[in-house]
Design goal:
about 475 residues; mainly alpha; 20 helices
Length: about 475
């Protein structure tokens, strides 16, 4: 257990280093691209990503998770999975290219068709990466994963910004995506050492189809529920509204998914190793929820406190309609940061069938909510997202934690202290923000306020939440 804990701690540290580097590059490139590209450019890319995101569900058919979860994956099995993923990637690319004209007609935006045909090239590339990435995750080699991710992101952002400076418009975002995927493929192959054999054993693949089938089914249902808002906004409100909505996602929910995804990447192999010991699983899960809350709660409440001036400074005044969307979506991110952790419970315990059934029930309401909110424009959709997400969170948590015999109220234990500290920090920022911005100007003022928020949160955490603060420090120092 100590060895597993130490490896998990190293994984969290590497994930944190990777996250800081990725977010720094993302904020820098976003600040540049938001000035060089139009709102409509982001809207067109958002429309295209809805289609590629749906096709991406079938990119690996859940095989990435099964490689991590498998008790002893042999070379024959891994090679079979590799060629399956490559084949699926090719089929996905052809399918996206064929449906591109229909997508352009649905969104009433002709340029979406050509953008989709080029983005389709990402699928075979991504299929090549699946096994290499999963093996690094299985063996908890998160340093190698961090190198691959940060290196690929650097290449992608450099290509995107260069293309934008050359006035390539929406194609800057397309080239950025292709460059990032190509760099990921090269770096993962260099880091993992896995080389597939020319074999594809169907019996090996059939042995895991129950696990992967339910996981893919859940991902399919979840995709439609999570993207119904974008589909409706793009169809009925147009590319400019979708551009604003997409930018709000980039500012808030994409970083959330990056953080929880990176932490989840550590949790999944760690939880899989103790899946039969529910007592140890419960302790590890609550500790993980506390860590996620400690890191994400101040992020979202801090962004809420500084949304209006931060949008003007980081993105430019033309993106000001994004500010009220951020104010509404920030609480959604806060709730999702906790609820998103349940996926690791289902996948580690092999209960993907339960995950699928719960997903079928819990993902209907968001679609209905988005349809109702559409009548009040893009802000109405965001409000509907908030109401539905908060309402469904106890339901989603209940069925997940019962798999490890954890009472639902116990999930609140590691969460309430980070929440109080983050609320206190946000109140301080709200009180002092106007004076600081007036005295220092918006540029320096935002930086000063961010530093002030970090110091206030650290101080409150040491006073109110010292145990979790020490736990994080010890984990960072590998003394766990």
């Amino acid at each position: 257990m100590a060895t597993l804990t130490s490896r998990a701690a190293r994984g969290v540290r590497w994930s944190a280093v990777s996250q800081v580097a990725l977010q720094t590059m993302q904020v820098g490139s976003l600040a540049i691209l938001a000035r060089l590209l139009t709102v409509a450019d982001y809207g067109v890319m958002g429309m295209a990503v809805l289609v590629t995101g749906f096709a991406g569900i079938f990119r690996d058919l859940g095989t990435s998770a099964v490689v991590v979860h498998h008790r002893d994956p042999q070379p024959r099995f891994l090679s079979s999975v590799f060629w399956l993923n490559v084949s699926v990637g090719i089929v996905a690319a052809v399918t996206v290219a064929l449906v591109a004209p229909w997508a352009a007609a649905y969104f009433r935006e002709p340029s979406v068709g050509l953008v989709l045909r080029v983005l389709a090239l990402n699928f075979p590339i991504a299929g090549i990466c699946v096994v290499n990435q999963s093996l690094l995750q299985r063996h908890m080699r998160f340093g190698a994963l961090a190198v691959a991710e940060v290196g690929a992101a650097a290449v992608g952002y450099l290509v995107g910004v260069t293309a934008a400076l050359l006035h390539q418009g929406v194609w800057s975002l397309v080239y950025q995506s292709l460059a990032m995927n190509l760099a990921t493929m090269v770096l993962l192959f260099a880091q993992s050492g896995f080389r597939p054999k020319f074999v594809m054993d169907l019996d090996e693949l059939r042995s895991v189809r129950g696990y992967t089938g339910n996981l893919t089914g859940f991902m399919l249902v979840n995709y439609f529920a999570r993207n119904a808002d974008n589909l409706l906004v793009g169809r009925y409100l147009g590319d400019v509204s979708l551009g604003h909505y997409t930018m709000a996602y980039k500012v808030l929910l994409y970083p959330l998914r990056t953080i929880t995804g990176l932490v989840g990447r550590v949790l999944f192999p760690a939880f899989s190793a103790i899946k039969d010991d529910h007592s140890a699983f419960r302790v590890a899960y609550l500790r993980a929820v506390g860590l996620i809350s400690f890191l994400t709660f101040p992020l979202f409440l801090g962004v809420m406190a500084l949304a209006v001036p931060a949008v003007n400074v980081v993105l430019s005044p033309k993106w000001q309609p994004v500010a009220p969307l951020i104010l509404v979506l920030a609480p959604v991110g806060l709730v999702q940061s906790v609820v998103s952790s349940v996926g690791s419970i289902y996948t580690a315990t092999g209960k993907t069938a339960v995950m699928f059934r719960v997903g079928l029930v819990s993902e209907i309401l968001p679609v209905l909510g988005f349809a109702v909110g559409l009548h009040w424009g893009v802000l109405g959709v965001a409000v509907a997202y908030f109401v539905v997400e908060v309402s469904l969170s106890p339901f989603n948590l209940f069925f997940a934690v019962r798999q490890i015999e954890l009472p639902l109220p116990h999930v609140l234990r590691p969460v309430w202290r980070p929440f109080l500290c983050a609320v206190g920090m946000a109140l301080v920022l709200h009180v002092v923000s106007a004076r600081v911005l007036t005295a220092l100007g918006k540029g320096l003022g935002i930086g000063a306020l961010a530093l002030c928020g970090a110091l206030v949160y650290a101080g409150l955490s040491w006073w109110v939440n010292r145990k979790q603060a020490k736990d994080l420090i010890l984990m960072a120092c590998a003394r766990v």
